[in-house]
Automatic annotation (TrEMBL):
It holds the Pfam family GCV_H. Belongs to the ABITRAM family. Its main location: other. The keyword Nucleus applies. It comes from the Eukaryota. One of its GO terms (biological process) is regulation of actin filament polymerization. This is Protein Abitram. InterPro entries: Abitram, GCV_H/Fam206, Single_hybrid_motif. Keywords: Cell projection, Nucleus. The lineage of its organism: Eukaryota, Metazoa, Chordata, Craniata, Vertebrata. One of its GO terms (molecular function) is actin monomer binding. It comes from Struthio camelus australis. GO terms for cellular component: dendrite; filopodium tip; growth cone; lamellipodium; nuclear speck. It is found in: Cell projection, Dendrite; Cell projection, Growth cone; Cell projection, Lamellipodium; Nucleus speckle.
Length: 144
């Protein structure tokens, strides 16, 4: 899987996961061009319809690790499904990449993020323990 989770744990009350493309994702290699990004993951479910309100994030779509967030098509005809990779509530999707898909490739770790997910508080510690360090990630890539 080529999704990457950037985990921010500022303090015990604020924990978020920013879903981005991993640096080894095929869309970030070999000069591929993005044709389209679609948050409509099925006939009945669009991540753009996610409406969150209040401190308890009412209305947020619940995601499992295997929940698709979006589909990205490249100009060479390839389509990539980007998965959540984490259980939690979908806080927001990055609508800016719909109008400017190039930022997904130009700034994948910042402005080109895909989504923000809030894991359950009681699961957040096990999530951080399961994440790879940069060095571990690079070792995985070398084995591929």
């Amino acid at each position: 899987d080529f999704s990457q989770i950037q985990y921010n744990n500022y303090n015990s009350c604020c924990r978020i996961c920013v879903i981005t493309l991993a640096e080894a994702h095929p869309l970030l290699q070999n000069g591929k061009k993005i044709k389209s990004i679609n948050y409509q993951i099925s006939a009945n479910c669009s991540r753009l319809q996610n409406k969150v309100s209040g401190k308890s994030k009412r209305g947020a779509q619940f995601l499992t690790e295997l929940a698709p967030l979006c589909r990205i098509s490249s100009s060479d005809g390839e389509e990539y499904t980007i998965y959540s990779c984490i259980r939690g509530r979908l806080i927001e999707v990055n609508e800016n990449i719909l109008n400017n898909p190039a930022i997904l490739q130009e700034k994948p770790s910042t402005e080109g993020y895909i989504a923000v997910v809030l894991p359950k508080f009681e699961e957040s510690k096990s999530i951080t323990q399961g994440l790879l360090t940069q060095k571990e990630y690079e070792e995985v890539l070398l084995k591929r």
